[in-house]
Design brief:
With 81 residues, the protein is mainly beta. Helix content is 10%, strand content 51%. The protein has a five-stranded antiparallel β-sheet, with no helix packed on it. Strand 3 and strand 4 form a beta hairpin. The longest helix has 8 residues.
């Protein structure tokens, strides 16, 4: 066990209320505040932004991402402009 993480969803539970980076199939990336997720890794993000080449392309706000479109979720972000 590292940092209180025993199972994969423990990492998402610790990231609730914090900013996460989400990589989708088709090269799309989003950054936003993780509000909620379910067992299918469907994600609710607040203050979501689409990121392209490290910069904000579009402000989206409150959004829902389907778990089957997600490649990875990173709770620790690189800074975007």
């Amino acid at each position: 066990m590292v940092n209180g993480i025993e199972r994969p969803l423990d990492l998402l539970n610790q990231a609730k209320g914090k900013e996460v980076l989400i990589q989708l199939k088709g090269e799309k990336q989003f950054v936003g505040i993780l509000l909620a997720f379910d067992m299918h890794i469907n994600i609710a993000l607040d203050n979501a932004k689409e990121i392209q080449e490290g910069e904000v392309k579009k402000n989206i706000g409150l959004t829902f991402l389907r778990g089957d479109t997600i490649i990875y979720i990173s709770p620790s972000l690189t800074h975007h402009k």
